[in-house]
C-alpha cells in the first residue's frame, strides 16, 4: 500500500456554489466514513478568471483505499450528480517539497 494525494478540480459557475458544496460535502462525508482519508481541504479560487473555481486536495492512506471507496455504489451515485461540475480527479505523489521555515534554518 502506498499513500497518495488526491487533487480534484471542479468547474463551478458562481450561481451553482450552493448545489456544488452540498454535493461535495455528501461525497466527503461518505469517503471519510469509509476510512483512508488523512486530510482534505477544499480550495475556492479568489478570482473570476480561474477555470477551476474549486480544487480539492486530500491526503489518502493508500491508493487501494481510494479505489475501494470510489467504486462503491453510494459514491457512484453522488459522482453522477456531480458530473455537471466536470470533476477532474487524479492521484499524485509528492515529487518535490520545500518548507520555507526549514530553508531559513539551514542558512
Automatic annotation (TrEMBL):
MF terms in GO: monooxygenase activity
Start and end residues of each ABM domain: 4-96
Keywords tagged on the record: Monooxygenase, Oxidoreductase
A Pfam family of this chain: ABM
Protein name: Heme-degrading monooxygenase HmoA
Origin species: Geodermatophilus saharensis
Amino acid at each position: 500500500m502506498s499513500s497518495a494525494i488526491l487533487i480534484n478540480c471542479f468547474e463551478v459557475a458562481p450561481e451553482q456554489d450552493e448545489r456544488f458544496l452540498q454535493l461535495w460535502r455528501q461525497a466527503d462525508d461518505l469517503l471519510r466514513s469509509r476510512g483512508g482519508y488523512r486530510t482534505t481541504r477544499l480550495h475556492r479560487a479568489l478570482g473570476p478568471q480561474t477555470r477551476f473555481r474549486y480544487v480539492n486536495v486530500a491526503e489518502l492512506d493508500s491508493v487501494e483505499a481510494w479505489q475501494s471507496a470510489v467504486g462503491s455504489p453510494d459514491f457512484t451515485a453522488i459522482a453522477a450528480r456531480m458530473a455537471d461540475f466536470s470533476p477532474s480527479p487524479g492521484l499524485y505523489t509528492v515529487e518535490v517539497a520545500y518548507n520555507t521555515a526549514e530553508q531559513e534554518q539551514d542558512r
